[in-house]
Target: Protein YIP
Amino acid sequence: MWQDTSNSYGASTSQNSYYGQQASTPLQFYAPDANSFYGASRPSLDGQVNPQGSISQPAGYSGSIHYSGGWWTAFGTGGLEGEPPLLEELGINFSHICDKSLTVLNPLQQIDERIMDDADLAGPIIFVFCFGTCLLLSGKSNFGYIYGVGLFGSASVYVLLNLMSEKGIDAYRVASVLGYCLLPMVGMSAVSVMVSLDGMFGYLLSTIAILWCTYAASGIFVAVLRMSEQRFLVAYPVGLLYGCFALLSMFK
Model:
């Protein structure tokens, strides 16, 4: 019994000496290097912290975005840097609209044959809207007739011009010319808001407006298509078209 106790005591003493030897040895932990773990450094980061604590930008990645004004500058001629104005992207150029409108208002001047190189429908849409609005204010709600007559008339004039000329013209330019030359008819519809055109004054004013629109439109078509010897043939169907618009302005 005593011998067993001594054996157990000796075993415990040897175990304590073993653990004491292990405890005397300092523990070592492996701390891997971040650069060696990822294989390389991270130069693509936005910034690096130097020992002083400030952030430095990497070389070759500097730059900033500068705005020349607020968001409303996109509607002007300046806009954002490197971006065209919004109206230019939509195909709206007020200077060209004014030039073409002045050409219609003064049809006796020399018409440039390249006036419709920059054809647009912004001006015609504005004039058609004003024409329908004036008729509505005078008690004539004819928006459907205006669109119907305008669409059918533009298609008919487009077919006739391409059959008569060797150069040819596209439907977009035909609609643009007919829409711009509607400007005198818009003035007549504005007069109908204040004065009734169902009388001698209205007949005379309508005749002047029809001749004005027809002369301006035929002059532009002849200048663009170089059909100076066929102006009366061009003016006849155009005059019929503007005559329909005049009837919409005169009668309910």
Q: What stands out?
A: Residues 145 and 248 are 8 Å apart (CA to CA). The chain has a mean pLDDT of 75.
